[in-house]
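Practice problem 4.
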């Protein structure tokens, strides 16, 4: 039974990381705003993620500094002192998030059902939420169903600051523009430099301009440099050179993004840019680009079978393939076949004007 038949006055959402999961959760926030525009929403999140979430209209964003240790918890609880919410949406099954929740006063504390509530999250909530589907987005939208939303269909509309759009405007001339985000924060999720270089050559043969994007992390810079050394078909290397708003604006002007399981994959969903995702360690039916799951290149099923002897439906929902070389099961031919398919189906080589 739904908790509310009319709008609650205040909701606190706790999701500290990561960028991709915060992108998924934006759909829930905007569904709440559509049905209950007067409800005050406060989102507690990490420092990096806040760069993106602060673009949300009419949402208070409070930053939790996990790097500060116990001081980060104390600072958060000090900011929340004297406040009480109708609802806490505890949307991160991690111990650090549960500890942070101890300073959040709320009548109703919603968390994941037992199967998804790892690290003892169920101990910190008093309502357990069932997923509305297999994907993480649908798991998050289950919170909306539990609240009493009548329309919890995922949808995203995130305004981009004018200065970020101005920064990205020159790259709109690099058309048709393909962005390759070669690296994830965890190196085991990355495909090979040789594979990305071959894809850049293939895309250039199709007439596309190729730009590399990514974070300032050294392993991401190193991978991008290696790709550039293997091909002359990289128009620009912007790895480590963009803020999150700038990156979002750049993804919006691109025709296509190619990436492994990483944040920009899901930022593309926010601005409706097609995504070709590369997956081996996580089930793309659960974590893939929400609107382009039919176009992923996935070796998850075969890697899982090789590692465990089991199929996806026989293992727990969040089971990860642990083989550090699993992404090397993806061949260049597999990626090029899906690449050709997605540019055909979305008419990505055509002038949109």
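Answer key:
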């Amino acid at each position: 039974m739904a908790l509310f038949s009319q709008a609650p006055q205040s909701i606190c959402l706790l999701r500290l990381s990561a960028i991709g999961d915060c992108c998924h959760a934006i759909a829930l926030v905007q569904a709440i705003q559509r049905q209950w525009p007067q409800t005050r929403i406060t989102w507690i999140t990490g420092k990096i993620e806040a760069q993106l979430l602060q673009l949300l209209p009419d949402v208070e964003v409070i930053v939790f500094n996990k790097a500060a240790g116990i001081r980060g918890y104390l600072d958060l609880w000090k900011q929340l002192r004297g406040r009480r919410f109708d609802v806490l949406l505890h949307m991160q099954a991690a111990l650090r998030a549960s500890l942070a929740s101890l300073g959040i006063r709320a009548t109703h504390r919603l968390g994941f059902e037992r199967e998804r509530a790892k690290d003892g999250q169920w101990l910190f909530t008093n309502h357990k939420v069932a997923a509305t589907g297999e994907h993480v987005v649908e798991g998050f939208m289950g919170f909306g169903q539990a609240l009493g939303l009548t329309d919890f269909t995922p949808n995203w509309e995130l305004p981009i600051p004018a200065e970020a759009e101005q920064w990205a405007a020159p790259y709109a001339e690099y058309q048709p523009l393909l962005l390759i985000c070669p690296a994830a924060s965890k190196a085991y999720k990355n495909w090979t430099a040789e594979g990305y270089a071959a894809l850049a050559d293939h895309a250039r043969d199709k007439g596309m301009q190729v730009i590399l994007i990514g974070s300032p992390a050294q392993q991401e810079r190193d991978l991008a440099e290696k790709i550039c050394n293997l091909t002359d078909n990289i128009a620009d290397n912007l790895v480590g050179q963009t803020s999150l708003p700038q990156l979002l604006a750049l993804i919006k002007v691109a025709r296509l993004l190619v990436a492994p399981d990483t944040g920009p994959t899901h930022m593309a969903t926010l601005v409706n840019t097609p995504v070709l995702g590369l997956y081996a360690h996580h089930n793309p039916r659960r974590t893939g680009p929400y609107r382009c799951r039919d176009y992923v290149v996935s070796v998850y099923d075969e890697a899982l079978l090789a590692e465990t002897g089991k199929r996806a439906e026989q293992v727990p929902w969040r089971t990860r393939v642990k083989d550090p070389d699993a992404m090397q099961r993806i061949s260049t031919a597999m990626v090029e076949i899906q690449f050709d398919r997605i540019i055909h189906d979305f008419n990505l080589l055509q002038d949109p004007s």
